[in-house]
Amino acid sequence: MKRVDATDKAKNLIQQLKEKHGDLMFYQAGGCCEGTQPQCFRKGEFYLRYKDVCIGTIEDIEFWVDKDLFEYWKHAHFELDVIDAIGAGGFSLEVPLGKTFKVNYRIFTQDEINLLDEVKLNT
Description:
The protein has about 120 residues and is of the alpha/beta class. It has one domain: Hypothetical Protein Aq_1857, Chain: A. It is built from three helices and eight strands, in the order E-H-E-E-E-E-H-E-E-H-E. It has a five-stranded mixed β-sheet. Strands 1-6-7 form a three-stranded mixed β-sheet. A hairpin with a 2-residue loop joins strand 4 and strand 5. It is globular and about 40 Å long. InterPro entries: DUF779. This is UDP-glucose 4-epimerase.
């Protein structure tokens, strides 16, 4: 069972960004301001911290989260979405398009928890 997925609207924006920027990555921190929303970067242009967690992929793009955020949200499904707005951060690749990625969360059922895909740690 996947821990992360995306709306069609988010997938369409991802395809636009891939065409323009090439290989991408997502990162979501647990801090304040822009750290609370997912950020999209060219792959390798954001340096992961020790034990950050890849919770899965969206359109073949790894979605990484801060290790502490993962501990807090490990029982939740992340659904990547996009809205027409400029979020608190200005570093994510969608910002110049007047868009902001956001995550909708829902708690997994016990049956889903038993079927979850493994995560990957940055070591």
